[in-house]
Amino acid sequence: MKILVTVGIFPPDIGGPATFVPEIVNHLQNEHNYEIDILTLSDNQNLNIKNEFSVSKINRSLPLPYRWFSTILKIYKLAKDKDLIFVNGLGTETTIANIFLKKKIIRKIVGDPVWERAYNKYKTSYSFDDFQKNNNGIFILLQKKIRNFSIKRSDIVVTPSQHLKNFVIDLGYKNKIESINNGVKMPKESTKIFQNNQLNITILSRLVPHKNIDKVIKAISNLNNPFIKLNIVGEGPEIDRLKSISSKYDYKDNIVFHGKLNREDINRIFLNTDLFIQASNYEGLPHSLLEAMSFGIPVLCTPVGDCKEILENEDRGYMLDLPVSEDNIKSKVAEIINEKDIAVTKGQKGKDFVIDKYNFKNTFNLYKNLFTNLVEVKRK
Fold first, then answer.
1. Degrees, nearest 5: CA angle 273-275-280
2. Quick check: 91 and 74 in contact, CB under 8 A?
3. Residues 109-145, buried b or exposed e (16+ Cβ, 10 A)?
4. Of 160, 293, 326, 332, which is most buried with the most CB atoms under 10 A?
5. Contact partners, residue 59, CB within 8 Å, separation at least 6
6. Which domains does the chain have, with CATH numbers?
7. What is the pLDDT of residues 22-32, one digit of tens each?
């Protein structure tokens, strides 16, 4: 089978799709002999990075009209001989190209890019759900119309969570919706939690406003504990502001910005992490949270998307309140420090849960069956 995968971010970028796409492509190529091309956006410095995949890259910094035209044209060229297109990003561009291609499209929905752009550019303060119900001005309304048109042109939509499935249904999507959990590749080792006096906290995220990383930095710094180290892995438009915030505190050297890291280096950090924090205003089913749990790391996150169900009301981790506040983060971290044995137990429960429900081979085989069935229907 021949597939084109479109995705907005790809390693060395950090984010759920940048983790998911290489893993599923690797599985489908090695286990099922699929022929797969990948199209993604890339920053200038990453355009010439080589890897084991067949990846075409469009420069993210190009002027928007030219980038759109280049992306649509590239999708058209790459997809001409493909059996289907698997959309993990670049959905609107794919929809336009497919007006001429008329290929089958499976689209994975992991959030709402319209809300994310608006929130991160301070164009709205609405939560994810409230944003869908409210009029946010003509420009955002137009983006919503384009988003809805694009999603409705998909043959099958895949969502990793019930919350996102409800979101797609509310948009008026009438075709088939499949719920397939995000798969996680299980680590060969488990993290040894709280092995010394130092508390290693890790954030793995794009550095954008709705992730609330500024509040985490302030909360941790205001604990005034020289034995706490905060590892921030990822890049994004907030990087300079976050570095400026961290520089104002006494233990600023304990806040380390690692930038983009490869998978081996991320795993190395996880093996030395005592607590993982995800303080986002919205997530569907965060891949980084499941990764941390797979290492047995205690997690602290917001009750957004399907996170509340994953943690089962704090049986498998710790929950922040909404709206996210520095005081709440600070008090939760202090609580974890004071009940390390309980935190370790929650971390182990989380690991057992991820092993049972989010094994990547089971997930990827569900995708393989989905691809096969859709192509067979097309050929009939």
1. 120
2. no
3. bbbbebbbebbbeeebebbbeebbeeebeeebeebbe
4. 293
5. 41, 42, 43, 44, 47, 67
6. 2-183+359-379 (3.40.50.2000), 199-357 (3.40.50.2000)
7. 999 999 999 89
